[in-house]
Amino acid sequence: MTYVIAEPCIDEKDKSCIDVCPVDCIHETEQMLVIDPDECIDCGACEPECPVEAIFPEDALPEKWTPFVRVNAIFVEGGAPAVAAALAGHRG
To answer: How many domains does the chain have?
Structure first.
């Protein structure tokens, strides 16, 4: 299991979660923050820090935001441009 940042973070990017992450697995893209699932140690420190409640354990992610598992993971493959492409047209 890993943590996932979902749609409420789009255009928000508060960054409070970055400050508490002990392994620096949260990365900023143009549209939102993402969690690198390969770096996340599942500590949960980020979740309560998010003011828009966009961070979820993967197994508790609301179904409507399941595409964000892939959005977060795609950062590993292609960085911020890959996240932008994955988010293109996604709202709601």
So the answer is: 1
Assigned domain for 15 exists: yes
* Residue span of the structural domain in which 46 resides: 3-87
| Predicted TM-score (pTM) of this structure | 0.85
Cβ partners under 8 Å of residue 20, min gap 6:
45, 46, 49
Can you name the residues that pair with 55 across neighbouring β-strands?
5
Question: How high is the mean pLDDT in each 10-residue block of the chain (92 residues)?
Answer: 93 94 93 93 97 97 93 75 64 50
What CA–CA distance (Å, rounded) separates 92 from 75? 21
